[in-house]
Amino acid sequence: MEAKMGKFFESVGNFFTGGDQIPWCDRDIVAGCEREVAEANKGSSDELKSECLMRLSWALVHSRQPGDVQRGIAMLDASLSNTGNPLQMRERLYLLAVGYYRSGDYTKSRQLVERCLQIVPDWRQALTLKKAIEDRITKGDVSFSLVFISLLFRVVIK
């Protein structure tokens, strides 16, 4: 019974806070990825450096720290022009979409997810993010509507 109540309150909390299925990343993981990139820059292959930078980008855009998310977005934006492989492009576009989603730019996030889905139409991660974006946009529209109606109601009553 207690577990069911916990899930109920979690789902209610997620509704009001906009909870989603996109994972978060702790600061310790970001720091570990930063150390990994520093080590890779000391003479490792370009492929290893690229892999380390992708892991760092993933950690940054999934961070709870807005500054980290912005750093991740900047890194990914800068790396897009150097991407020729469609699967790498898909990964970078997806991570950029996560970054913009985390920063609240749902329009930009949705555009990037659509580009991912053009590359791989049935990619479950991108479809899940697209749903989260649409849910967030819908909740924003509902919230705006409720505020507008309450303001209108106050004016009418006076």
Draw up the topology in text.
Elements: H1 2-17, H2 27-40, H3 46-61, H4 66-80, H5 86-102, H6 106-119, H7 124-157
Short description:
It contains 7 helices and no strands.
Number of strands: 0
Largest beta-sheet characterization: none
Compute the CA-based radius of gyration. Answer: 19 Å
Fraction of helical residues: over 70%
Q: What's the pLDDT, averaged over the residues?
A: 82
Order of helices and strands: HHHHHHH
Treating each run of at least 4 consecutive H or I residues as one helix, how many helices?
A: 7
CA-to-CA gap between the ends?
A: 47 Å
Structural class: mainly alpha
Low-confidence runs: 3-17
The percentage of residues in β strands lies in under 5%
Structure report:
This protein is mainly alpha-helical and 158 residues long. Helix content is 80%, strand content 0%. The N and C termini lie far apart (47 Å).
